[in-house]
Amino acid sequence: MKALVYHGPGQSSWEDVPDPGIQDPADAIIRIGTTTICGTDLHILGGDVPDVRPGTVLGHEAVGEVVETGRDVRSVQPGDRVLVSCISACGRCRYCKEGVYGQCLGGGGWILGHLIDGTQAEYVRVPFADLSVHPLPGAVSAVDAVLLSDIFPTSYEVGVIKGNVRPGDTVVVVGAGPIGLAAIATARLLSPGRIIVLDPAAARLEAAKRLGADVIGVPGEQPEALVGDLTGGLGADVVIEAVGRPEAFELCTRLVRPGGHVANIGVHGAPATLHLEELWIKNLTITTGLVDTYSTPRLLTMLASGRLPASELVTHTFPLSKVSEAYEVFSRPAETAALKVVLEGEPVETREVVRTQ
Questions:
Q1: Domain ranges within the chain, ordered by starting residue
Q2: What architecture is domain 153-287?
Q3: In percent, how much of the chain has pLDDT > 90?
């Protein structure tokens, strides 16, 4: 099969690799129909995730068809159309029993496109399939559903839920890339009083307005002054960091009110300064986190009922074979206005559909 293979910082290629096979009775093999590129993939290519070894197939988001299952798989069978979660869960360890799947101790967590081969390929092996893939309703499109592999549960769980967004709150989202935009959409589900979005890119600010932002920070405007004016000098109840840069995190800590919450979603590749000499007295709650995807079934229900504007984040679509070109577009959002880039699998040689005994 063909796949996008990582060869070290700044290096990847679309090339022939062996087809995946069942390695454990809990595995499923999925033929990829739709996948996408995540900002984390750019961090990998930038050398920020050293755990990824050269030779690894990238990608951790997909919708596809089950073509083979191990003998222990019960929730799906060959022929099923499924969502592949970015997080794999053994279901047996302490963390999985608590629903904290991202910290799985049994060989799961974030492994696809990280510790094992991922989804930017014609086929992928998904471990622990019973907890790591989700059957899709027929009415849900693949383009909508693939955004629930990662960015929507990440924004909802790590940004909105950990940030403790409540009705009437003033919420600031720093960064209007795909994760920040999904944070806007999922924060609205909890009826905040006002959502303020800060980003230097005009196209992303316009997208933020379409997805429900009440106020956008015009480039050049002082964000502290804007938030102060809108909150009577108090600061925001919740500030969500969706960039992954030290200056963005430090800005968040200046925008939040005493007793408020800073929820860091961004993937950081460099240290950020925590000004405890200023913050210790403010009674702040600062949270970080890798998504657990416990919310995926709930989000799929909301997607099916039209409550989540998922596909509005998609700006570009490419054939999977043009994945290198798609990366080029996705990595230059200021020039291309790219938000979420979707890759659609092309017809491939039919693989025998089988359930392993």
A1: 2-150+292-355, 153-287
A2: 3-Layer(aba) Sandwich (3.40)
A3: 92
Pairwise CA distance, residues 127 & 304, whole Å: 26
Residue 356 tokens, joined? 């392993």
Superfamily of domain 2-150+292-355: Medium-chain alcohol dehydrogenases, catalytic domain (3.90.180.10)
Strands 194-198 and 170-174: parallel
User: What was the pLDDT predicted at 338?
Assistant: 95
pTM score: 0.94
The conformation of residue 116, written as its DSSP 8-state character, comes to: B
Q: 245-251: which pairs have CB atoms within 8 A and are 24 or more residues apart? A: 245/270, 246/270, 246/271, 246/272, 246/273, 248/174, 248/175, 250/275, 251/174, 251/198, 251/223
Per DSSP, helices labelled H in the chain are: 39-45, 94-97, 129-132, 142-146, 151-154, 178-187, 202-210, 223-230, 246-255, 276-279, 296-304, 323-330, 333-336
The helix (H) or strand (E) run that includes residue 287 is: strand 285-287
Closest CA to 21 of 130, 117, 90: 117
pLDDT tens digits for range 218-245:
877 899 999 999 999 999 999 999 999 9
Judge if 2-150+292-355 and 153-287 fold alike in CATH terms. Answer: no
Tokens at residue 243, please?
Answer: 């960039």
Contact 294, 103 (CB under 8 A): no
